[in-house]
Design a protein that fits this description.
Layout: H1 2-33, H2 39-65, H3 79-108, H4 112-132, H5 136-140
Helix pairs in contact: 1-2, 1-4, 2-3, 3-4
Length: 142
């Protein structure tokens, strides 16, 4: 079970990052081109939101069934262990909270520019945080 969840979490990460990247890129293009925010733009942002939330749920599940989870919190001198047991989950939770705030703010925005800006800023910050705490050595070796 643990191996399946770990592989799913690693594999889904590619899709979640791709969806998030597309959402940020689409929002930036919307700002630059000064286009109207359409249902297509809303769906692109929604898919980015859903992809990251699925990744969060699977990641939390993995964290609690992992031998590296809660038991390793006392060993903070080991950088790799600290990354996987503390920095990665905490930073990604913050990133997904920012993405969720961006989604909520875009829904309340009055005009297209404000909608695109909310998505660009909050999804962009979330993307940067996620990329900063990926355990690259572990991920690329899977």
């Amino acid at each position: 079970m643990y191996t399946f969840i770990q592989k799913f979490h690693s594999g889904w990460a590619y899709l979640a990052l791709l969806l998030l990247l597309i959402a940020v890129f689409n929002a930036v293009l919307g700002i630059i081109s000064k286009k109207e925010f359409t249902a297509k733009d809303r769906k692109i942002a929604l898919f980015g939101l859903i992809g990251t939330h699925i990744q969060l749920v699977v990641g939390l599940l993995l964290y609690f069934v992992s031998p590296l989870g809660l038991d390793s919190l006392g060993q903070m001198k080991d950088a790799a262990l600290r990354l996987t047991s503390l920095e990665h989950p905490l930073t990604n939770i913050i990133a997904i909270v920012l993405i969720t705030i961006g989604w909520s703010k875009h829904k309340k925005a009055e005009n297209s520019l404000a909608k695109f800006k909310s998505i660009t800023i909050f999804y962009g910050l979330g993307l940067v945080l996620i990329l900063s705490r990926i355990p690259w050595k572990l991920w690329l070796n899977n």
